[in-house]
Design goal:
Elements lengths: L4 E5 L3 H12 L3 E5 L3 H10 L16 E3 L2 H5 L4 E4 L6 H9 L7 E4 L12 H8 L5 E6 L4 H5 L4 E2 L1 E3 L3 H11 L4 E2 L1
Parallel strand pairs: 1-2, 1-4, 2-3, 4-5, 5-6, 7-9
Antiparallel strand pairs: 6-8
Length: 176
């Protein structure tokens, strides 16, 4: 399990906190940011000046403005984009995904214009048969980044994807 290549899609506060958690577990994590200046700051200074400015990020965490670069070769993709953008972003990401990649949705909310859940959106845009899992709070990005005790739930139609997601994220302070 250690050393997996993980693409985290969305460098807001929640995406950055999850990417940092995974990088601190010695995974090869590439965080995609829509904002190139955020990706550059994470690469250069290991902090996210826009969304988690007071948190020093793991030295091994990498960031990019290229969605293809973040997705390519990742065995796990963690989608943490705003719910209203998940459809278009994951449709683009699907073109670069490994066939056996697991997609973990940590996006909060529903698609506003269609009232679709993230499970419904991903089922429509990902290749048929893609294993998906859903990570849900209650949780706060800053508290997770500061390693405060947090408990979340994971759900999936695939027992294997749920267990892998649990093991991937589980730490002493982040219980899944």
């Amino acid at each position: 399990m250690m050393g997996e290549r993980i693409g985290v899609i969305g460098a807001g506060s929640w995406g950055t906190a999850l990417a940092d958690l995974l990088a601190r577990k010695d995974h090869d994590v590439v965080l995609w940011s829509y904002e190139q200046d955020v990706a550059d700051a994470i690469e250069r200074e290991h902090h996210n000046p826009r969304y988690l400015k007071d948190v020093q990020l793991a030295p091994g965490l990498r960031a990019t403005g290229s969605l293809a670069e973040a997705v390519r070769d990742a065995s796990v993709l963690v989608c943490v984009s705003p719910a209203q953008h998940v459809r278009s972003i994951m449709r683009d990401a699907a073109q670069h995904m490994r066939d056996d990649a697991i997609v973990v949705s940590a996006s909060k909310g529903i698609e506003q214009d269609r009232l679709s859940t993230m499970a419904q959106v991903l089922a429509q845009v990902l290749p048929q048969g893609t294993a998906t899992a859903y990570l849900s709070g209650p949780s706060f990005a800053l508290e997770v980044a500061q390693e405060h005790p947090t408990a979340v739930a994971v759900a999936s139609h695939s027992h294997e994807a749920a267990v892998e997601t649990q093991q991937l994220f589980q730490t002493e302070y982040f219980r899944v």
